[in-house]
C-alpha cells in the first residue's frame, strides 16, 4: 500500500510527493565577482512531503553522472550497527542509460569512511533489464552540512569510475544526532552502572 511504499523509501512519509530526475543545467554563476560557465548533467529532487525533522533515519543519497547517456541515483537505508558491506540496503534508485530509465533492483555497496565522512565507495548494481553496473568512487572533497538542527549530512563530492569512464556526483549521508548520540556519545549518562567505587 501507499504507506508501506513510503516507509520503504528511506524517509517515510517525507517521500510522498517527492521525485528525482536527471537533467542538464546550463548558464553562468558569479562567485565573489568571478563568473563561471555552467554546463552540467546532474540530479535534482523535489521533496514536498511532510517530515519530522527530529526523527530522520540514517540514509544515503548517491549520484553519479557520466554524461547524457549514463547517470545513476540511489537512496540507501543505513544500519550503523551492521558491519561494512552489509550496513546499507537499497531503498530505491535508477540508472539513466541511453535515454532509458531503468530501476535498480539489486545493490552491493562497500563504503570506506574517514571517521564518519564517506571517502570511498565500491558498488555493484543490477538494473531491471538484468544489466550489471560496477562503479568505484573516491572523494575529492567532503564536509558536513547541517540541513536540519537535529541532523548532520556528511557530503562528499565523489569521482566515479566505471570501466574507462569518469564521472562526478554527490554523496549525502544523513546522520540523525539523536541516534549518533545514542550510539557513540555520552556513555557516562548510565553512571553509576558502568563505574564501581
Structure explained in plain terms:
The protein has 197 residues and is mainly beta. It contains 2 helices and 10 strands. The protein has an 8-stranded antiparallel β-barrel. A two-stranded antiparallel sheet has the order 1-2. Strand 8 and strand 9 form a beta hairpin. The radius of gyration is 19 Å and the shape is globular.
Which features would summarize this protein structure in a list?
two-stranded antiparallel ribbon, mainly beta, 10 strands, 7% helix, 197 residues
Q: Radius of gyration, rounded?
A: 19 Å
Strand tally, please? 10
Distance between the termini: 55 Å
Overall structural class, as computed from helix and strand content, comes to mainly beta
Overall 3D geometry? Answer: globular
Q: Biggest sheet, strands in spatial order?
A: 3-4-5-6-7-8-9-10
- SSE pattern: HEEEEEEEEEEH
Number of helices: 2
Relative strand content: over 45%
Task: Please outline the major beta sheet.
Answer: 8 strands, antiparallel, barrel
Question: Which residues form runs of ≥5 with pLDDT under 50?
Answer: none
Helix content: under 10%
Could you provide a short overview of the structure?
The protein is mainly β and 197 residues long.
Topology of helices and strands:
Blueprint: H1 2-7, E1 19-31, E2 34-46, E3 59-67, E4 70-78, E5 88-97, E6 100-114, E7 117-127, E8 132-148, E9 151-162, E10 165-176, H2 177-184
Amino acid at each position: 500500500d501507499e504507506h508501506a511504499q513510503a516507509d520503504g523509501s528511506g524517509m517515510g512519509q517525507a517521500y510522498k510527493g517527492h521525485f528525482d530526475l536527471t537533467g542538464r543545467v546550463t548558464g553562468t554563476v558569479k562567485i565573489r565577482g568571478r563568473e563561471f560557465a555552467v554546463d552540467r548533467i546532474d540530479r535534482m529532487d523535489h521533496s514536498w512531503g511532510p517530515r519530522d525533522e527530529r526523527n530522520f533515519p540514517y540514509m544515503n543519497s548517491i549520484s553519479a553522472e557520466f554524461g547524457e547517456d549514463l547517470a545513476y541515483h540511489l537512496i540507501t537505508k543505513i544500519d550503523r550497527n551492521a558491519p561494512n558491506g552489509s550496513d546499507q540496503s537499497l531503498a530505491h534508485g535508477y540508472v539513466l542509460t541511453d535515454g532509458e530509465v531503468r530501476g535498480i533492483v539489486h545493490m552491493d555497496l562497500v563504503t570506506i569512511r574517514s571517521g564518519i565522512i564517506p571517502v570511498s565507495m565500491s558498488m555493484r548494481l543490477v538494473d531491471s533489464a538484468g544489466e550489471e553496473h560496477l562503479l568505484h568512487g573516491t572523494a575529492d572533497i567532503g564536509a558536513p552540512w547541517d540541513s536540519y538542527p537535529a541532523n548532520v549530512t556528511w557530503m562528499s563530492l565523489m569521482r566515479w569510475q566505471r570501466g574507462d569512464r569518469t564521472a562526478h556526483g554527490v554523496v549525502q549521508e544523513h546522520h540523525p544526532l539523536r541516534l549518533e548520540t545514542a550510539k557513540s556519545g555520552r556513555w557516562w549518562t548510565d553512571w553509576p552502572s558502568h563505574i564501581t567505587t
